[in-house]
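Lab meeting, item 3. Inverse folding demo.
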């Protein structure tokens, strides 16, 4: 017997905005948006969040899932040191939202939500052991082991971007920092130039693919996943760094393992909302 589709909310607290979506089955049926201002007081930023939820809330909503760029205790529902909201140092977010809307609330960090969203709605569906990599401002990672999200302590598992690499950390070479600091232009602008066959832009993505390939080799050694799903804005340029990434994997010690390994790119629309909503499922 097929499970009844649930209506839930997914909330993405991003770097510059809070976006909430009402999700029915596999579809985001309505969204609400509010800007995030780092200068906002604690009360003002919380009000922005509650307002975006209220704007899409209906009586048939059964639960709310929230993805937060922070250290998260999913059991107590407390978030610590939210990166883009400086006043949120220790916030009992689960309790506050549940009290306001009287439905169950689930929290996790944004990278874990991305992985869970891919498992329920996207490219990770067929795989029991999978890693989701978010290629954006930083390098976020969520881990699925035997069909279950692996959180670690305070949802801290998967911080591969913090590993030492060259004269810094991996995130500086596999996130958007790399393009800004090395080429003086954003990944978005370089992607547009690469689409026009600009030689320098193509070279930038080729070099980026080598760095990302080294990160992926580390993931393969640690977790031996069946699949890695790439998401985030930089994943749009995958065709421009695929060859150099594959070349970096040529030195992976266990080539037989690669016969049962795939790299996919996410095709989810409203991926952060679906990922947060997946916490409720």
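The presenter then showed the designed sequence:
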């Amino acid at each position: 017997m097929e499970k009844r589709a649930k209506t839930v909310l997914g909330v993405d607290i991003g770097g510059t905005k809070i976006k909430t979506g009402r999700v029915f089955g596999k579809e985001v049926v309505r969204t609400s948006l509010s800007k995030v201002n780092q200068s906002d007081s604690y009360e003002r930023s919380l009000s922005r969040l509650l307002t975006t939820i209220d704007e899409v809330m209906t009586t048939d909503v059964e639960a709310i899932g929230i993805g937060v760029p922070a250290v998260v205790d999913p059991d107590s529902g407390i978030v610590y040191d939210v990166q883009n909201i400086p006043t949120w140092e220790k916030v009992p977010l689960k309790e506050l939202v549940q009290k306001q809307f009287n439905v169950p609330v689930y929290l996790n960090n944004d990278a874990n939500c991305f992985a869970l969203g891919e498992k329920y709605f996207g490219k990770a569906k067929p795989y029991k052991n999978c890693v989701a990599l978010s290629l954006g401002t930083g390098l976020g990672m969520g881990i699925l082991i035997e069909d279950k999200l692996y959180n670690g302590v305070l949802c801290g598992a998967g911080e591969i971007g913090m590993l030492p690499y060259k004269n810094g950390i991996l995130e500086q070479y596999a996130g958007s920092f790399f393009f800004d600091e090395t080429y003086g232009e954003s990944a978005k602008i370089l992607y547009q130039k690469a689409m026009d066959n600009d030689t320098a832009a193509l070279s930038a993505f080729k070099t980026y693919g080598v760095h990302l390939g080294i990160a992926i080799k580390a993931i393969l050694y640690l977790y031996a996943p069946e699949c890695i799903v790439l998401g985030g804005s930089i994943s749009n340029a995958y065709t421009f760094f695929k060859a150099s990434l594959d070349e970096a994997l040529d030195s992976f010690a266990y080539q037989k393992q690669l016969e049962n390994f795939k790299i996919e790119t996410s095709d989810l629309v409203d991926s952060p909302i679906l990922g947060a909503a997946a916490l409720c499922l």
